From TrEMBL:
Biased segments, Low complexity type: 1-14
Species whose genome carries this gene: Alexandrium catenella
Domain of life: Eukaryota
UniProt name for this protein: Uncharacterized protein
Start and end residues of each stretch annotated as Disordered: 1-27
Amino acid sequence: EGPAAAAAFGAATASDGSQRSDEQTPAAILRRQSTRLEDGSAPLDVPHATVLSLGQLRDLVEQVRGGEAEDEVWSLQTIVQPEDGLRVVSTYSCDGAGKEKSEVFARQYHRFYAIPPQSLTLPLPEAVAADGCVEVPPSRRAAVETKTLSAVRFASRFHGLDFEGLVLEFVFDAGGGAVLHGCWCAT
């Protein structure tokens, strides 16, 4: 509450660094489960991300403060706009013999994190395939692989979790740093 809350919900930084008040400014990402495919088929138990504007974020916070119940598990994160317009996906796997494998590829950020947000539907497999992968420069690939392996080692050492598979998403911020943006799957 107070000035900090007003600043968080009332102003956003424009790309030129100036402050602006705009209800439609992207402010957060809401992650939920149980979405539908674009063809309208039955709900799936998969994660889905929706970009929230400042106004939508304010409404959600007010609902939570007011005690309105949510039927689903959800999480909320701040928006980190990638400097290169890409989201970098890192897939880690480890077989029964302990052999580790890593795949890193990128896709267009705006195709998944639509601004303004679209309906809570997942794209059909054909649409995902048509998106195509983008080559990740070697230095960024190395940074993402290092961070992925660090997450695997951290989970094992401090939480006793040993992954057979892990899918993480990163974006590179304006300073060129790799930011963990989401965890899509862990087995």
